[in-house]
């Protein structure tokens, strides 16, 4: 059998050509294919047009060993992936009795009969292998076109990922080249991309000359920097050892800005620290309007350590709900370290939390002054930990808010880590 060395990914759906829907499936598929040693050369997004989809499919099959599509397998008239593939490969579409029975049974479990339009999902290009879908009605399909492989997957990520992991990945493993791709990711916050690169470059450049060469890339998003280390080869143990050594060097050089070397998010790192101390947290937010609390509660099980929060946008709420003294507001203003500290102390006391966190600032685009320009944000923690910092963030309103959230979580992380370290 021919090895599958190269791949192309086609995301199908007109909605993906708008500003309202992101193609996250391609990210997942790229990562998994790369892990198998299959090099993704091209990604494309194609609308719900049979002619366009057919043309893109022909080009992809002419170039790549493997083509993976996502979407266009639903029951409606604009779901055309099956039909386009059958036309390109000159295959008949046959109704699969087992697939049809599975779809009927799925609707029966929900207590109503299968709509007739769902019958379209039971049609399979002749010779294709059905990849069962435990989470939906559209099965995946594995089609061998000469020496090339075409995999059709449904669009919903939960369905696509389950089918890929359960049915497609084991088949691909047998056809993938001997080389594998291994990765590590360092996540850090509190430094600019250029600052990170200035420290990291003298470390990661020599890694490319290792017996197991390590490649490093930097990804910057508001409030967070990621260093991605990767190695490709046949000796997985040697690659893992080299990657771990590179991670150790970079983490030591960039500490304490590094918050994760194991893939955890900043909010999960904070949650793990709070769980370790058996502490609870409450949040008072002005300019972030609840975004900090939103990040904290994204973690499953966060009810064990998140008490709640107060969005204290108006000064009156700071006074009445958080107990901030009026003279503090009058003398220092809402965006000040004394007020931020009082907000943190107030929310901890009001909600009975071990730690209070407060964010107050000027996100813009208006409201700034010479003394406190747009981007001025003050963050405080109080209770079991204590600290306050003033930041000057750059960017538009959204960027200032996102950076503020990351800075608030990181202040909790750093201060809590200091306590943990002092007690160990």
Give the quaternary arrangement of the chains.
single chain
CATH architecture assignment of the largest domain: 3-Layer(aba) Sandwich
Order of helices and strands: EHEHEHEHEEEEHEHEEHEHEHEHHHEEEH
Q: Would you identify the CATH H-level superfamily of the largest domain?
A: MoaB/Mog-like domain
Mean pLDDT: 95
Per the CATH scheme, the topology name of the largest domain is Molybdenum Cofactor Biosythetic Enzyme, Chain A
- Share of helical residues: 40-55%
Which range does the strand content fall in? 15-25%
Shape call? globular
Output the strand order for the largest sheet.
2-1-3-8-7-6
Q: Count every helix, treating DSSP H or I runs of 4 or more residues as helices.
A: 13
Number of domains: 3
Structural class, please? alpha/beta
Poorly predicted tracts of residues? none
N/C terminus separation: 57 Å
CATH class call of the largest domain: Alpha Beta
- Rg estimate, integer Å: 27 Å
Largest β-sheet summary: 6 strands, mixed
Number of distinct beta strands:
17
Written account of the structure:
- It is a single chain.
- This protein has about 425 residues and is α/β, with parallel strands linked by helices.
- The chain has three domains: about 5-175, 3-Layer(aba) Sandwich (Molybdenum Cofactor Biosythetic Enzyme, Chain A), CATH 3.40.980.10; about 180-260, Ribosomal protein S10 (Alpha-Beta Plaits), CATH 3.30.70; about 265-424, CinA-like (Maf protein, Alpha-Beta Complex).
- It is about 40% helix and about 25% strand.
- The chain contains 13 helices and 17 strands.
- The chain has helices spanning about 25-35, 50-65, 80-90, 95-110, 155-175, 195-205, 235-255, 265-275, 290-295, 315-320, 325-330, 335-350, 395-424; strands spanning about 5-10, 40-45, 65-70, 95, 125, 130, 140-145, 150-155, 180-190, 215-220, 225-235, 260, 280-285, 305-310, 355-360, 375-385, 385-390.
- The strands form four sheets. Strands 2-1-3-8-7-6 form a six-stranded mixed β-sheet, with helices on both faces.
- A hairpin with an 8-residue loop joins strand 6 and strand 7.
- Helix 6 packs antiparallel against helix 7.
- The chain is globular and about 80 Å long.
- The relative contact order is 0.08.
- The mean pLDDT is about 95.
């Amino acid at each position: 059998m021919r090895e599958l060395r190269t791949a192309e990914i086609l995301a199908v759906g007109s909605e993906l050509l708008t500003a309202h829907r992101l193609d996250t499936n391609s990210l997942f598929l790229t990562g998994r294919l790369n892990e198998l040693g299959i090099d993704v050369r091209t990604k494309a997004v194609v609308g719900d047009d049979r002619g366009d989809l057919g043309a893109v499919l022909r080009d992809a099959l002419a170039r790549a060993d493997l083509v993976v599509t996502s979407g266009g397998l639903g029951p409606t008239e604009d779901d055309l992936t099956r039909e386009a593939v059958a036309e390109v490969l000159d295959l008949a579409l046959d109704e699969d009795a087992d697939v049809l029975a599975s779809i009927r049974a799925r609707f029966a479990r929900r207590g109503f009969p299968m709509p007739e339009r769902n019958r379209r999902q039971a049609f399979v290009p002749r010779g294709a292998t059905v990849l069962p879908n435990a989470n939906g009605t559209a099965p995946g399909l594995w089609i061998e076109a000469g020496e090339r492989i075409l995999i059709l997957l449904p669009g919903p990520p939960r369905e696509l990922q389950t089918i890929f992991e359960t049915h497609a990945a084991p088949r691909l493993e047998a056809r993938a080249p001997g080389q594998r791709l291994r990765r590590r990711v360092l996540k850090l916050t509190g430094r600019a991309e250029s600052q990170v690169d200035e420290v990291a470059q003298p470390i990661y450049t020599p890694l490319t000359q290792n017996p197991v060469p390590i490649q490093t890339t930097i990804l910057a998003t508001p409030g967070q920097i990621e260093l991605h280390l990767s190695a490709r080869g046949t000796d997985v143990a040697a690659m893992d050892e080299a990657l771990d050594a590179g991670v150790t060097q970079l983490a030591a050089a960039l500490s304490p800005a590094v918050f994760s070397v194991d893939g955890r998010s900043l909010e999960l790192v904070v949650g793990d620290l709070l769980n370790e101390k058996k502490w609870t947290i409450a949040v008072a937010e002005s300019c972030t309007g609840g975004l900090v609390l939103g990040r904290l509660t994204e973690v499953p099980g966060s009810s064990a350590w998140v008490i709640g929060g107060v969005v204290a946008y108006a000064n009156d709420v700071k006074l009445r709900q958080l107990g901030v003294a009026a003279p503090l507001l009058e003398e220092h203003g809402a965006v000040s370290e004394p007020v931020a500290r009082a907000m943190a102390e107030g929310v901890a006391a009001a909600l009975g939390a071990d730690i209070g966190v407060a964010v107050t600032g000027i996100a813009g685009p208006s409201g700034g002054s010479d003394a406190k320009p747009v981007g001025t944000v003050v963050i405080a923690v109080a209770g079991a930990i204590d600290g306050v910092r003033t930041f000057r963030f750059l960017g538009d309103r959204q960027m200032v808010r996102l950076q503020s959230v990351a800075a608030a979580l990181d202040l909790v992380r750093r201060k809590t880590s200091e306590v943990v370290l002092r007690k160990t």
